[in-house]
Amino acid sequence: MARNSLSPQISTSIIEFVRANGMRKGEHLPLQMLADTFRVSRAPVMSALRKLEERGIVRAEPNRGYFLGMDSDKIEVAKEDGGEHPEGDEAAYFRIAEDRLSGALSERVSESELMRIYELPRTKLLKVLHRIAEEGWIERLPGNGWSFTRTLTSRQSYEEGYVFRAVIEQQAMLLPTFELNKEGFLKARETQTALRDGGYEHWSRAEIFKANNDFHETLVACAGNEFFLDSIKRINRLRRLVEYHVTIDRSRLPRQTTEHLHILDLLEAGRRTEAAAFLYTHIMGAGRIKAPQV
Amino acid sequence: MARNSLSPQISTSIIEFVRANGMRKGEHLPLQMLADTFRVSRAPVMSALRKLEERGIVRAEPNRGYFLGMDSDKIEVAKEDGGEHPEGDEAAYFRIAEDRLSGALSERVSESELMRIYELPRTKLLKVLHRIAEEGWIERLPGNGWSFTRTLTSRQSYEEGYVFRAVIEQQAMLLPTFELNKEGFLKARETQTALRDGGYEHWSRAEIFKANNDFHETLVACAGNEFFLDSIKRINRLRRLVEYHVTIDRSRLPRQTTEHLHILDLLEAGRRTEAAAFLYTHIMGAGRIKAPQV
DNA sequence: AAATGCACCATATGATCATATAATGAAAAA
DNA sequence: TTTTTCATTATATGATCATATGGTGCATTT
Q: How close is the nearest chain B Cα to the Cα of A42, in Å?
């Protein structure tokens, strides 16, 4: 009846915050500062702190506020929230995509039908539907109901997506505003190396996909142009949906990661043009070999 | 309390339909065919036809259906609906953009505030807000309210947009799937010629902007890749908002249209690479000279 | 001076309901 | 057989309301 409380998220954020700052036992946690950091008012921060007190992570002193109860590196991550809770609406969004790709949802659907199937309140459903509409794989019909487009399910769209990514990423790399992001590269290098040296055998499909996306988004972010980055993020959201329905060919991962690392090498050696050309071939190659099972 | 009826729109659609098909007095208008054409059920078509009958455009024969009451080229366009009614939500979307750009709306706003200001029901407002959020110039705050981003108002975003357009359009033209669209080119040529030969002095700002956008979207559509076209449409929607606040330098229009026509010439002569290079310079030139008054 | 803690107000969500409209099956007419 | 016409059902919208939560001014404490 009322919205979900922010305090669980804020609790998590506070823990991340004190960790990231390496804070130690006894340090003060000013309310307003935390509120500003998380872009909320003091109220939800207060209620988050109260819950953290119950868990012994912070101590309250009357009229003086809250203080860290232990060194930040000793804080245990809460075991709760474990149930794969992908951010509320995200869950519904995903279920709709799954059901569409598997054919459980027909091309034309009505809002009330979806409300019943997914047991969503109208507001949440509409939020999700409008988001999907902006992503381009559903559209509102003039009268009642919605109609899925062929964007998700057609082979042609799939290939067009790869062409688009190849062009955008290559061109992003060639922009005069492109600048290496040392920290980002370091992380990307770690992840890709881990994936190459064994990770490809046991990482989950979601982890592998995320590693791949993060790599490409890190590259495009270096171009310093929000429109390039946005368009890549947008198409990657679509890709995620489709690729989940494709059998991962894990044997290709070592080669893929090696190529990723090669791109980093080239960039760090200042050979941008070569890196861009190689990246282009890399993406087009991936698009040609994997095929959606639709 | 209930949604707006479709019948006014359908009435207009029917008139457009019979015009486009050059239908003549007495021809039959089957209900189901019209319904399928407009992707609705027979019900709203029926009610549209009843209204057209009152205006004498169609004749009803009991149990036989509706028949065109006059030759299609003699149908007068209805004078009603005159009040600049840009498709319902579009109006609210525009007003919000205007007020943001003119500074009437502060960076942080709450939903109820917007409902009051624009006298919108919650559902409509949320639809618009989510659309804007997808376009990237507002974001939901974790607690209450929304916050405008700097995408619309910053000079940097403005320039990044031009770079993005220049790259996308040039690259679209170089794709192997690029194919001339003769009919589209013909129309574009007409419009651009009209604009060059005098139109630039008295066309409205909206007309000029639309002509320009249509030209560029026609070009990108030839690439046969929905992602290229979508990204151009998306950025053009943003551009439209900002450019309305810029004084048009009409003296530049003859040169601009001449360049547009030159691009068509090059393409029709099969000189695609040159056309692409010229297009790139053309867009970047436009971005450098016009400046948003923000 | 700075931060907390409280009280009060504002906000957003979801449920329910009335109502106008869209969708649709089936009878009736052509 | 096709299309209209009618009757019935389904759908979507906006209004209203209860309620839990977020936001904020101010007295109080340190």
A: 11
Name the residue with tokens 């090059």: B266
For the four alpha carbons of B234, B235, B238 and B243, in that order, the dihedral sign comes to negative
Q: Residue A66 forms beta bridges with which residues? A: A29, A60
Task: Report the percentage of chain A scoring pLDDT > 70.
Answer: 94
| Secondary structure class of B277 (helix, strand, coil) | helix
What does A60-87 look like in DSSP terms, one character per residue? EETTTEEEESS-GGGPPPPS-S-S---S
Cα separation, A267 vs A235, in Å, equals 24
State the maximum Cα–Cα separation within chain A, in Å, rounded to a whole number.
Answer: 65
Q: How many other C-beta atoms are found inside a 10 Å radius of the C-beta of residue B93?
A: 20
Dist CA A110 CA B124 (whole Å): 18
- Selected residue of B160, B174, B220 to mutate for chain A interface (largest A Cβ count, 10 A): B160
* pTM for the model: 0.89
pLDDT at B197 over 70: yes
Amino acid at A78: A
The SS3 of residue A151 is: coil
pLDDT in tens, B232-248: 999 999 998 888 777 77
Separation in Å, CA of B107 to nearest CA in chain A: 13
Cβ <8 Å between B227 and A164: yes
The Cα B123–Cα B139 span in angstroms is 17
